[in-house]
Amino acid sequence: MEIKDKKLHRVVSTAIIHKDGKYLIVLRSPKKKAFPNRWTLPGGGLETDDYIGKPKTTIDAWYYVVEDSLRREVKEETNLEVDNITYLLSLSFIRTDGIPVCCLSYFCDYKSGEVKLDDENIDYKWVDLEEANNYDLVEGILEEIQMADKIIKKNKNI
Q: Which domain does 141 fall in, by range?
């Protein structure tokens, strides 16, 4: 596979949304460039509109741009509001079209809303860890949900 540009990356983020002991997974559209027809987590790409034109946090920069972008993506894709966004890990991969991707994975709490999907995803499920094993998840997603679950239970002393 040829990498299109070795210096530029697409920056994306994903949300492991926690609600009542379950996690939201979504089935990607068959039209998606990365992982079509696979179960994954809501999320998407950072856009310059996520910060350009908004007030800077400091004289030169914007803070919490990825977290704000993730809130926007979750709202666009699922119609949900999330809270307590916490960084979990980062990973990189090369899409089938040669675009390098840096993905930042977060976990967060469900805040409000009813799931209503946009055209990027065609189905959704709220699953616990055991149920998640029954879905064709993108590689690594199950392990990320397990990591987040362990942290959430530790923080809640479960």
A: 10-155
